[in-house]
């Protein structure tokens, strides 16, 4: 492996070739190389995190989302006390990285609300990340001051046409504000940025290439930001939205491998949308972070999830699997 | 003690320093530390769960010198914060300074490293800074009061060996501090090579942690470090600077009286 062709890294043309591989033997070869690069850069480790849904109030109309405004469901948000209680439950399972998720609603879940949540949970969790609405530079800076160290923001799709179609109204309908939030997050000095696409909205090859290009641009301009990517596939949801395009297991495997070979130090995060067996199988291909012990509803309201969870394993069960079967070191503590 | 490596009043026999990142399990990591008899072990402060008595550093042999590192720090301010955090949590005064704001190559920021070293030394820390090999930077760090210098052999995790050999040799020759080669050492012969040119020690993480048998690999590295050190002390003939000069001048005969 000493003859690794490093000129193929960060190479968009090479990325396009990687995602087009059809030959099984070639895919296997790429998988072996992706595994090697991941072990070299990360060791056989997997960082674990759990999401906490703060609020399902939402003024957006995203067609694919179980929280979208036109869906009739009990709207609620966690109080400060509930945030602490829910956080403690997650903390007691050993988790030290928490991801706060919320719908977009400036009355019910404004920046002050996020600030309160971050300050409350920073006392327990060494890393607090958020996956919420796109915000301004000053808003990101303010949250960072209170201990926010990671932001997840998905472009969903880079096709303006499809983006417009699936975001018919609400602030999220503004493609450009969404797109430029990645730069504002980096500009605010936030340590880690997780970008993503929602697979099934567009032809996956198109969005994958655009995501790669976006990453290339951002990592060049902001070398001090730690980048990671996610590519969840559309799952059964309360919005009754079906994928516009199919994304097979092979397609997702190609995406993971290709991103690993494109940027050897890139974080790759996979959620519990994928099932247990599939998640187990893709770990060696380049995945560095996985959520576990997730629930995608607010508080106790089990009927109204943002999306259906496939991998329902408990933290301990997954930890045992990693240590005893997969030979991977589950990493809970990764930041102080 | 003759032959020991001396840093800030501590003497070490084993010149292989061990990193603790990237191991496939904490138990393998701990076994590697124990069986290699490594005396200096680095650990990323960001990986230490202060709220848990059972964490990445618990159960390490008591005799080792734990060297917390500021991995994750992107500037001097963050590095200083992390160092203080480690000390406040009871992990001592020694700190390996790592300031990296380059996510592509993971090169250290030499300028921010100097800044952090200056502050941390004044705060009473024993500072071992990780740098991109540069003589001017090394001088500044030595003048700041650091206790050693840790130049990279090649980018972290690359296993590419001593790509920076010539620059490291210059630093070894000019700077009167222990020079500990850190990062990029991919195999025992790389470590041996570093010791042969006069490095005081080698820090290895990826090449050991990600090998199929880290315990065996660590022992191989110890052997290599010892071999390189012994060769250096013996004076390697092919290295001109070590070639023993005859005790009598070679051109004296030209001026002898007939």
Q: In percent, how much strand structure appears in the residues of chain A?
A: 5-15%
Ends distance of chain B: 52 Å
Please count the helical segments of chain B: 8
Overall mean confidence score, pLDDT of chain B: 93
Biggest interface, chains and residue tallies: A-B, 29 and 32 residues
How many β strands of chain B by DSSP? 10
Please tally the β strands of chain A and state the result: 9
Largest sheet of chain A: 8 strands, parallel, barrel
SSE topology string of chain A: HHEHEHEHEHHEHEHEHEHE
pLDDT under 50 segments of chain B (min length 5)?
none
Task: Please write the string of helix (H) and strand (E) elements of chain B.
Answer: EEEHEEHEHEHEHEHEHH
Radius of gyration of chain B: 20 Å
Low-confidence stretches of chain A: none
CA-based shape of chain B: globular
Major beta sheet of chain B, specifics? Answer: 5 strands, parallel
Summarize the structure.
The complex is a heterodimer of chains A (336) and B (258). Chain A has 336 residues and is α/β, with parallel strands linked by helices. Chain A has 11 helices and 9 strands.
